[in-house]
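Morning. Coffee machine broken again, so started the prediction first thing and wrote up yesterday's gels while waiting. Chain of 227 residues, entered below exactly as on the submission form.
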Amino acid sequence: MQDYNQAPINPLPPAVWLLAMPMIALEILFGLGAAQIVGGANAIGWRTAAIETYGIWPAYWREQAMAGAFDFELLSRFVTYPFLHINPTHAIFAIVILLALGKYVGEVFRSAATLAVYFISGAMGAVVYASLPMIDLPLFGAYPGDYGLIGAFTYLLWVKLAGTGLNQIRAFSMIGFLLAVQLVFGLLFGGGGEWIADLVAFATGFLLSFALAPGGIAKLRALIRQR
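Came back before lunch.
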């Protein structure tokens, strides 16, 4: 029998909404601005101005880091850049991944732990990306944080496979597939080194999960004893 009281969409953890809603709101605002429905003629450049002000610019980061100028304006970019996207399509794909992986991780992790995985992974990916001297293209968008959630998802699958006695390497099939897809797209359409930020974020999310997952510290100690 059909349950008419069931929600039309699966409920999402609060932490996922806290991440997704600003992205959605910004896309609506940028869209309205581009159509000059709000903000007048100057609103056409809102998206570009936001990326310039709140995105990660590697040359600027390296210059400030060399000078030791780690002020709030510089460091805050590592929290704000995930909310900005180059166009609606870029945002839609990032938000879909966030909702899917965030739901899975957020139903196991506490809200604070989910947010920590997302932001710390995204920040670590951005720092490594921006610190490489051959990198000049700006970094923005939710993808590094999404890859941090993929790292947490991989950890949960890794633990699950360990409990069933199956090969734990299978837990890394998703990240392998995604990186292969990125490589193909990069060869076909060109691209920068964004995959570096994604890969670092994935590794960070996976490693953080040993401490942030429920019972994570105890599981880590047990793993060390087994070694």
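The longest helix spans residues 143-164. Going to sketch it on the whiteboard this afternoon.
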